[in-house]
Amino acid sequence: MKPFDSGHEDLVHDVAYDFFGRHVATCSSDQHVKVFKLDKESDAWQLSDSWRAHDSSIVSLDWASPEYGRIIATASYDRTIKLWEEDPDQEECSGRRWTKLSTLNDSKGSLYDVKFAPAHLGLRLACIGNDGTLRVYDALEPSDLRSWTLTSEVQVLSVSPASHLQSDFCLSWCPSRFSPEKLVLCVLDQALIYQRGKDNKLHVAGKLEGHGGLIRSVSWAPSIGRWYQLIATGCKDGKVRIFKVIETSSSANTTASSVSGDAAESGGQTNPDAPSDGTDAGNMPCPPLRIELISEHDDHKGEVWSVSWNLTGTVLSSAGDDGKIRLWRSTYSNEFRCMSVISAQQRQS
Asked: Per the record, which residues fall in region Disordered (predicted)?
């Protein structure tokens, strides 16, 4: 591991690599975004540009798929999402290399997470904040990236947002192009899977059960070579959990015990704790999902802050209060085991 000084003057909230892993972006409470590039000769990260992007702490950022250009989305406590595009004609470290494309300001509270959808869904992004509302935006005209439209709005929580000022909300898209559009959304200690139904609206299709505290991080694994999906969560209760998600037939005549209500964006407020007894899967806009908890680990011996899958969905990394990164891989018996532990502490020379 080669640590480098980000140059931020306050807490760094998020770090994101671009698709090729040659650039990394960071955001901070100092209201700045910084982009670093990897120098091939020295194998060191060098500052490419830094700019003041928001009027409050920036807590999340994400890169768009490279087929849409070099675009970054940032989310802030100032209730806005901003989209930035790189201008290669501008000098590096000038503060002008990244220009603002658009500002999305529909949120009524601080924003916590923003993620671009997989490329096969188009130039689309989702966000969640402490107003308890999931919002999805689309750039309907690829030739005009300054114009974004709010295409979906789902009220996830019905309680006052003021009570969630210190809570983590997070989301992750299903990356499979052979599966209906889905994303997993974590609010407080609830993890809900939303799927776009035949009515073109987002509905709750499943729930990840068993969390004993705030869910700090969630990651949906790429499903290369698998007939099922995997989702990992990191929780304040100190556990890394891995769930198996299996799609069921739309003609199934079973009761979906994992579905918490027939929640649609047109139905107003959604209560994640609503009972699902008597829900007929055949009458739902989208079929329910069968969800199994297949792995649970407390190796960090403290709060788990981040989980992330590799590009093939075969290795899961987790980071926690123990200051270590743990790498998890499935064995031949389909059991996840810790294969490596990486310490952030550097040996003093």
From this structure: 254-287
